[in-house]
Design a protein that fits this description.
With 273 residues, this protein is α/β, with parallel strands linked by helices. The protein has helices at residues 3-18, 141-152, 166-175, 190-197, 209-218, 225-232, 240-245, and strands at residues 23-26, 30-33, 37-49, 52-55, 60-65, 71-74, 80-86, 92-101, 107-117, 123-127, 154-159, 183-185, 201-205, 221-223.
Length: 273
């Protein structure tokens, strides 16, 4: 091995190992009835080299919604942990704090959007693939339809993307001007469980075959976006300012954004020294 080859190889190993040691906590968006609990399921992984993560078993994780009661659980051999975490008595969007302290005393935190809803309110599921990203124009018909739908119903977005990609998907939806709403991964039992908490979740908009199949399994009626708007919209007047501001998530009786939102910390993991 030449001197140059040895130097290059050594630098490569340094770069690969330079970012190791971080712990990453991931969890999907949370949805809970006001005054109830959210069934939080999360995963803890430890970064070994570059983009390779392995499960962190027996890791103690603390869970808390805002300043509510604190819950804790240990991860299993695959890095998963779960607990029923109480939410407050006010509807809105809050944050579930997930925290882990490693053996060296370093703290790792993640903040997950937690949507607290009236259990008797209307909820409509929408397949993300039914929405143009980005919209075809700043005043696209789909934006207007979604704004009208959100005036009479909470919106839950259904996707086939992995939980690790939901943060980026959320940014795309917000940049496109669509209503705020939790993102639910299309998987067995997800919509069925949501229907138990929110019985007014009766229908939704689906275009991809996987989401259609999950709708059928949950007993949801499949509608086009136009049909959903005709059925659930409350005649809310859509203006250019509303669409551009992304405030289409207005629910009657709430503020301009339809929610009360706590300050959102960055939630970025801190490299381990």
């Amino acid at each position: 091995m030449t001197r140059l080859t040895r130097w290059t190889f050594g630098c490569g190993l340094f770069l690969l190992a330079g970012c190791s040691g971080q712990y990453v906590l991931t969890a999907p968006d949370q949805i809970a009835p006001v005054g109830g609990e959210t069934a939080a399921v999360l995963r803890v992984q430890r970064q070994e080299v570059a983009f390779w993560y392995r499960p962190a078993p027996r890791a103690l994780v603390r869970m808390q919604v805002e300043q509510g009661p604190l819950r804790a659980a240990f991860t299993d051999k695959n890095g998963y942990a779960g607990a029923a975490v109480p939410v407050g008595d006010v509807t809105g969007i809050f944050f579930l704090q997930l925290a882990h302290t490693n053996p060296r005393g370093n703290e790792y935190e993640t903040y997950v959007p937690t949507h607290v809803w009236d259990p008797q309110a209307r909820v409509t599921a929408v397949d993300v693939k039914a929405l143009p990203l980005p919209p075809t124009s700043i005043h696209s018909p789909v934006q207007t339809q979604m704004a009208r739908l959100a005036a009479g119903s909470y919106i839950v977005y259904v996707t086939t993307e992995s939980i690790g990609d939901h943060a980026e998907l959320r940014k795309k939806l917000e940049r496109a001007g669509y209503p705020r709403g939790p993102i639910v991964q299309q998987r067995a039992g997800a919509l069925e469980q949501l229907r138990k908490q929110f019985p007014q979740l009766e229908a939704g908009v689906a275009t991809s075959w996987r989401v259609k199949r999950s709708f059928d399994a949950a007993g949801l009626e499949r509608l086009t976006l136009e049909q959903a708007v005709d059925r659930y919209a409350l005649g809310w007047e859509v203006t250019t300012d509303n669409i551009n501001a992304g405030s289409a998530a207005t629910i009657p009786g709430t503020n301009a954004d339809g929610v009360t939102i706590a300050g959102e910390p960055s939630g970025e993991p801190t490299p381990e020294p």
